[in-house]
Automatic annotation (TrEMBL):
Annotated source species: Thermotalea metallivorans
Gene Ontology MF: a single term: transaminase activity
One GO BP: amino acid metabolic process
Gene3D superfamilies, per the entry: Aspartate Aminotransferase, domain 1, Type I PLP-dependent aspartate aminotransferase-like (Major domain)
Family: Belongs to the class-I pyridoxal-phosphate-dependent aminotransferase family.
Name listed for the protein in its UniProt record: Aminotransferase
Enzyme Commission number: 2.6.1.-
Enzyme class: transferase
Length: 394
């Protein structure tokens, strides 16, 4: 097959797929598996948003829209950015896409030339390195170590910047670590980016899922960093709308125009009905977010306390998103009940076989000393799942 696209043949399939596929098969075989793998809220899209979609269909609002999104939705996004984030943008700065992932794809396509380097935090969300490669650029992984709260150290960023560095990816609140950067930390990163003239791709998709501290958009820290930043956000996590596929960017006009042109040829407008539903999500009651956050927070506290009481496991308290990175460095290299555990994948397989619990091995995020547990599942499941893990480690 050496006449197929070399670049695209090198795109990795998800490392985490093996475990989730096995867990699915076990469930299908009637085995009671508890899954900590969820990457989406376990809540339904709020009723008023669903109804807005039904109304759009009934009114016949089912044709194409402007390929970069409905003007009314862009207005609602500008209003959101102004009131939530203190950011002034006009509709011409906004591009609405098929989910934040598509927005990230467009952003990287718009700014990268072959051989450019893009700094990616490690542990990373699985798609970042592959999205960078799809743009013919090179992902440069910069450690965000647990003893630094899973955040970038300025000196590490500085050490990895060279003339090829085009952008830094920043993700706060973070997947997979749940970490949230403070305003002070963001200021230092912004200063560095401005000093070197490096673009900032700020993935703020978990903005609304914060339990401690406050979300700050790095773009709001001054006109220079705003000019360099592509803010990426979307409906998936805040409004439990993962399947609706609406994300968006806010950026300077030049970048927005390039992204809009790419999208106009590649995909055209994102789903029209989902765009109408998104307008309602912004304009309608915001209480459903608060209810979801309350449930996540309760689960988060329970999960972290329980994990830290289990021999061999530890984790820091994440401030946002719905994931806990569990440190398994004390387990790696050991044999438990006859199983040799040499990697996060071994441990995930052990937990699935022995405890009927599915977790995501850290290897999928570039860090083998961890597993990721999602608390986007009921408190009952969390209790039962963690008890099973505890027993499997006795
Ligand atoms: N960015 C991060 C860090 C994510 O975890 C996800 C989804 O898991 C996305 C972006 C993509 O979200 P969307 O559903 O809007 O494409």
């Amino acid at each position: 097959h050496n006449n197929l696209s070399r670049k695209n043949m090198e795109i990795s399939p998800s490392v985490t797929l093996a475990i989730t596929a096995k867990a699915k098969k076990m469930k299908a075989d009637g085995i009671d598996v508890i899954s900590f793998g969820a990457g989406e809220p376990d809540f339904n899209t709020p009723a008023h948003i669903r109804e807005a979609a039904i109304k759009a269909i009934e009114k016949g609002l089912t044709g194409y829209t402007a390929s970069s999104g409905l003007p009314e939705l862009k207005q609602a996004i500008c209003h959101k950015l102004r009131t939530d984030n203190g950011l002034e943008y006009k509709p011409e700065h906004i591009v609405v896409s098929n989910g934040a992932k598509h927005s990230l794809y467009n952003a990287l396509q718009a700014i990268c030339n072959p051989g450019d380097e893009v700094i990616v935090p490690c542990p990373y969300w699985v798609s970042y390195p592959e999205l960078v490669k799809l743009a013919d650029a090179v992902p440069v992984l910069v450690e965000t170590p647990e003893d630094n709260g899973f955040k970038y150290r300025i000196e590490d960023l500085e050490a990895n910047i060279c003339e090829k560095t085009k952008a830094i990816i920043l993700n706060s609140p973070n997947n997979p670590t749940g970490t949230v950067y403070t305003e002070d930390e963001l200021k230092k990163i912004a200063d560095l980016a401005v000093r070197h003239g490096i673009y900032m791709i700020s993935d703020e998709i978990y903005e609304k899922l914060i339990y401690e501290g406050k979300h700050i958009s790095i773009a709001s820290l001054g006109p220079d960093i705003k000019e360099l930043t592509i803010v990426v956000n979307g409906m998936s996590k805040a409004y439990a709308m993962t399947g609706w596929r609406i994300g968006y960017t806010a950026s300077n006009k030049t970048i927005a125009d390039i992204m809009a042109n790419i999208q106009s040829h590649a995909t055209s407008n994102p789903n029209t009905i989902a765009q109408y539903a998104s307008i309602e999500a912004f304009k309608g009651p915001q209480e459903p977010i608060q209810e979801m956050v309350k449930a996540f927070d309760e689960r988060r506290r329970y999960m972290v306390e329980k994990i830290n009481s289990i021999n061999g496991l530890s984790c820091r308290m994440p401030e946002g998103a719905f994931y806990v990175m569990v440190n398994i460095s004390k387990i790696i290299g050991n044999t438990i009940n006859g199983f040799v555990i040499d990697s996060s994948m071994d441990f995930a397989e052990y937990l699935l076989d022995r405890a009927k619990v599915a977790v995501i091995p850290g290897a999928g995020f570039g860090t083998d000393n961890y597993i990721r547990l999602s608390y986007a599942t009921s408190l009952d499941n969390i209790r039962e799942g963690l008890e099973r893990i505890e027993k499997a480690l006795l």
